[in-house]
């Protein structure tokens, strides 16, 4: 049972994190855009959901604090408080504090003194907003709440003493919002007794249409308690916006009974059958109610200036049935079934999966790919048509399983991008700069493992752009630029890779300043001639910084060297493009996946190598007459264009097989074509990427390994590092 509770708690923490992130995104959006009712309602729902979920686990600190935030947002929703920038800042601080409260509660830790002080400060600020509303406005809010809950006005006229009767109709999203109907019933039984309960099942759709995450139930409850209405309402505090609530008090009047029946979502005849079976009301009371209603609806005579009276007509309403109930007929109606079908079809079918289970699935699929390759190779050796056909069919299925499993691991990068909205806002405010972050390509998908590890590199690049790239407001105005600086995060796919761009419209990189700092730090000699690309690469050196003074943001020379190391660890690369006064673009490339790829297998000497198939452009036979006539002999004439190539036997220091035919494999990366001089071609292969051990993790030009169908090991080539080597060769030729 404890294990189940821990699993539910982890789910609560995960969902709360998503809700709080969404809340942050909404607040940042509203800071730059007009306030709309739907966004305010989303904010309110976010806080309300967290409060309800925290209440289920008994996290009182979280419940109490979120209740105050919820009260403030309710007043914002009712347009009693204006959502301006200072209030947005306060709500962002509250959002952070709620995140900390959940973390402390989930780990059974007591609040630190610093957190208690912060909480008191935040509550004081919240209460200032709440206390500014007048008593008259507060009364109006109470009236709105009562109307929303359909609480009848109980006048001391009337009938014999009865018990409370409560009608509940839960909404489909109740479970998704982290709420449990049973907790409401449990709360009521604390200081009272549920005498009778009828579960309403008419809204439940056909079994083949049921969404297990949707709630289709409701209850009619006969409740005995000597508590006041305020206690009854507390039971529904967490769910008042997730269900329709209709309460009939014990000292009810005929007016109360009439309002209760007409406010119900069920037809009157259906509800009456249930109430009579529960002995909530009697047929005698119904006759009295009909008589009272007819008297109330009679034409009213009024005096007039003429002999004829003026009659004020009241719209005739249907009489309330007493004897003739048609519950079965109503159940036959398609209205409720249709609405349930519509609900079921609209809801998205999403299942949360533990990431560890998903990783285990990918590992098993990888082993399946290796096993399939082995069977395929054996079938080819034995020349058995039936075995070959079976192997082909199995490999086709394995390929589909592999593609499906990898798609499950692919996630959109938009959520990661959105998290930087807050970072840009806060750093910009700290430095006195107005900056607008624009996000593009948020729906681009890549492996979740890559997404989890790119946060730090992107954070460094964004901080660098804000600090070094985008000018102050005064500088921008002096240059004729808009006062608000622009920062762009963009993602897109390109030849088997995902490209992420961090682009600003600032002053660009200063070549002379970078060179001067590099000479000062001994990174280059004063007489060394560097190209623009080589000069701008210096900013990735450890300890390099062009900041004139040390701040909280920069100046210590820690940042971009970490960026390059982290990107290299993900088999990626980073390029810099800059133009004076027009900004700088950092273009980062990552592989789409770190697990299983389609590769191209070939041999150099006695070793097998693999490159990602998406990067392969073509393959051609190597001939001496197409090789350049310079001493290095490292380029060929490919249909009138110069193609640099790398001799892999020299690069990996292996012996070539002189008897085998040589080939040049043309690959494309970062918009450039490069050739690899290789030996025997073995064609396309599904490759399971295995990490290198610690002994070989720094091996140059190799990013991983794979096990071939024959059981031999193939090495996966690190394409970015090979391209760097080719660029070095080209610079030597030019110099």
List the helices and strands and how they pair.
Layout: H1 2-32, H2 37-57, H3 60-77, H4 85-106, H5 113-131, H6 135-149, E1 164-170, H7 181-188, E2 193-200, E3 218-224, H8 229-235, E4 243-248, H9 254-263, H10 268-277, H11 283-297, E5 300-302, E6 310-312, H12 327-332, H13 334-346, H14 355-382, H15 385-409, E7 410-412, H16 414-418, H17 420-431, E8 435-440, E9 445-447, H18 448-453, H19 455-469, H20 473-478, E10 485-494, E11 497-504, H21 511-520, H22 532-537, H23 560-569, E12 573-579, E13 583-591, E14 596-604, E15 607-612, E16 616-621, E17 635-638, E18 641-647, H24 648-651, E19 663-669, E20 672-678, E21 681-688, E22 702-707, E23 713-717, H25 719-734
Parallel strand pairs: 8-10, 15-23, 18-20
Antiparallel strand pairs: 1-3, 1-4, 2-3, 5-6, 7-9, 10-11, 11-13, 12-13, 14-15, 14-21, 16-19, 17-18, 19-20, 22-23
Question: What would your notes on this structure say?
Answer:
- With 735 residues, the protein is an alpha+beta fold.
- The protein has five domains: 2-133, HPT domain (Four Helix Bundle (Hemerythrin (Met), subunit A)), CATH 1.20.120.160; 145-297 and 319-325, no CATH class; 356-411, Helix Hairpins; 413-591, Histidine kinase-like ATPase, C-terminal domain (Heat Shock Protein 90), CATH 3.30.565.10; 596-734, CheA-289, Domain 4 (OB fold (Dihydrolipoamide Acetyltransferase, E2P)), CATH 2.40.50.180.
- Helix content is 46%, strand content 20%.
- The chain has 25 helices and 23 strands.
- Strands 8-10-11-13-12 form a five-stranded mixed beta sheet.
- A hairpin with a 5-residue loop joins strand 22 (702-707) and strand 23.
- Helix 2 (37-57) runs antiparallel to helix 3.
- It is globular.
């Amino acid at each position: 049972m404890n294990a189940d509770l821990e699993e539910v708690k982890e789910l609560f923490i995960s969902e709360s994190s998503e809700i709080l992130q969404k809340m942050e995104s909404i607040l940042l959006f509203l800071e730059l855009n007009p306030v709309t009712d739907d966004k305010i309602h989303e904010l309110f729902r976010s806080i309300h959901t967290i409060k309800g979920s925290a209440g289920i686990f008994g996290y009182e600190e979280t419940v109490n604090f979120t209740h105050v935030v919820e009260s403030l947002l309710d007043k914002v929703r009712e347009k009693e408080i204006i959502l301006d920038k200072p209030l947005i800042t306060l709500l962002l601080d509250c959002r952070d504090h709620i995140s900390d409260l959940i973390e402390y509660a989930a780990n059974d830790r007591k609040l630190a003194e610093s957190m208690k002080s912060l909480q008191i400060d935040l509550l004081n600020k919240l209460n200032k907003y709440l206390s500014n509303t007048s008593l008259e406005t507060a009364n109006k809010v109470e009236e709105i709440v009562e109307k929303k809950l359909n609480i009848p006005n109980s006048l001391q006229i009337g009938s014999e003493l009865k018990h409370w009767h409560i009608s509940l109709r839960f909404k489909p999203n109740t479970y998704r919002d982290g709420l449990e109907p049973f907790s409401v019933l449990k709360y009521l039984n604390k200081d009272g007794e549920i005498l009778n309960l009828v579960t309403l099942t008419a809204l439940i759709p056909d079994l083949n249409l049921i969404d297990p995450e949707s709630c289709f139930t409701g209850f009619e409850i006969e409740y005995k308690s000597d508590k006041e209405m305020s206690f009854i309402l507390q039971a529904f505090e967490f769910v008042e916006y997730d269900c329709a609530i209709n309460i009939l008090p014990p000292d009810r009047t005929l007016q109360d009974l009439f309002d209760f029946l007409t406010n119900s979502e069920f037809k009157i005849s259906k509800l009456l059958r249930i109430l009579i079976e529960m002995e909530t009301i009697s047929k005698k009371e119904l006759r009295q109610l009909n008589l009272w209603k007819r008297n109330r609806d009679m034409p009213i005579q009024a005096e007039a200036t003429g002999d004829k009276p003026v009659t004020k007509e009241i719209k005739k309403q249907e009489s309330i049935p007493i004897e003739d109930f048609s519950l079965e007929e109503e159940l036959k109606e398609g209205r409720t079934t249709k609405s349930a079908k519509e609900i079921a079809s609209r809801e998205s079918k999403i299942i949360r999966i533990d990431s560890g289970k998903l990783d285990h699935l990918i590992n098993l699929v990888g082993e399946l790919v290796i096993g399939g390759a082995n069977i395929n190779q054996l079938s080819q050796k034995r020349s058995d048509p039936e075995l070959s056909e079976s192997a082909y069919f199995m490999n086709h299925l394995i390929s589909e399983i592999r593609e499906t499993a990898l798609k499950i691991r692919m996630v959109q990068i938009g959520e990661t991008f959105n998290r930087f909205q807050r970072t840009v806002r806060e750093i910009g405010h700290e430095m006195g700069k107005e900056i607008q972050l624009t996000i593009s390509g948020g729906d681009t998908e890549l492996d979740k493992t890559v997404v989890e590890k790119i946060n730090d590199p992107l954070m460094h690049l964004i901080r660098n752009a804000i600090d070094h790239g985008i000018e102050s407001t005064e500088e921008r105005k002096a240059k004729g630029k808009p006062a608000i600086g622009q920062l762009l995060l963009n993602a897109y796919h390109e030849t088997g890779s995902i490209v992420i761009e961090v682009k600003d419209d600032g002053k660009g990189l200063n070549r002379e300043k970078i060179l001067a700092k590099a000479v000062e730090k001994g990174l280059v000699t004063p007489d060394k001639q560097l190209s623009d690309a080589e000069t701008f690469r210096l900013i990735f050196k450890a300890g390099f910084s062009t900041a004139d003074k040390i701040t909280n943001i920069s100046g210590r020379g820690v940042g971009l060297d970490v960026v390059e190391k982290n990107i290299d660890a993900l088999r990626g690369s980073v390029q810099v493009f800059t133009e004076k006064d027009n900004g700088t673009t950092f273009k980062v490339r990552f592989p789409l996946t770190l697990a299983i790829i389609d590769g191209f297998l070939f041999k150099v000497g006695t070793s097998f190598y693999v490159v990602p198939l998406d990067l392969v452009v073509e393959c051609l036979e190597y001939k001496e007459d197409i090789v350049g006539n310079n001493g290095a002999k490292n380029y060929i004439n490919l249909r009138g264009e110069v193609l640099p190539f790398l001799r892999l036997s020299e690069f990996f220091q292996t012996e070539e097989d002189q008897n085998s035919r040589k080939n040049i494999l043309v690959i494309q990366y970062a918009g450039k074509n490069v050739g690899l001089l290789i030996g025997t071609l073995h064609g396309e292969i599904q490759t399971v990427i295995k990490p290198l051990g610690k002994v070989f993790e720094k091996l140059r030009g190799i990013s991983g390994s794979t096990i071939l169908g024959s059981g031999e090991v193939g090495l996966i080539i690190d394409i970015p590092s090979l391209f760097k080597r080719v660029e070095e060769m080209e610079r030597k030729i030019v110099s």
